[in-house]
Amino acid sequence: MTIQPPPPKPRRRGRLLTVLIIALIVLICLVVAADRIGERVAEDQVGARLQERIGTQERPKVEVAQVPFLTQLIAQRFGRVSLSAEQIPVSGASASGTLDRLDLALDDVRIGERELTAGTVNGTAFADYASLSSLGGAEIRYVPEGRITIDFTAPVGGQTVSGTLTGRPVIDSGRLSLVDPQLKVGGVDLPQTLVDALLSSLLGSFTLPQLPFDLTLTAVKASESGLEFGLAGRDISIAR
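The structure assignment produced for this chain is given below.
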């Protein structure tokens, strides 16, 4: 009796599995590519709208921080959107100038028919002393150990008084104030009790610029090149 060897196993199933795996990989690549392309288009569109809104020469950089993009787009809601812009035009009480840089993180961003709304906004803005002096209506300079000097002219007791106010800048209730202030009038240091009494009215003559999107000042830090401000806001709307 002759024993025949078993017939070779069909390879069709193995080839079909290989084709399915390749097709699945291609499909995943296409979905990822579509997600990235859609994200880039949306970021460019939002950047263009922001450029119109805040009036910058260059288009602000917009980045959707979380992935995937398409599922967030379908839900009309994004976890976080980052915004960076440079040379932002702003206006003070009597002059116009620029913020050198604005960096914002917008959380819980919802897409409406005509606008984008961010539940919370946090970030920073930076301006050099030349811009701040022009906008504030008084010369401001840096002095060592994180302090600044403001040359002011203000009405006090029915008279116009000129002097120099020095201290470490802080934000108090959304306004600029100074810690450990020193005041010189005519080159003479005034008593601390008088400085404390006059501080608020003297700083009232130095106004900070109106911030984009009605953001609120939360902090300030002085460096040799300028002031960096902490910013915050809630329910900020941006026209689409």
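Interim note for the steering committee: The mean pLDDT is 75. Helices lie at 12-54, 69-75, 129-136, 192-204.
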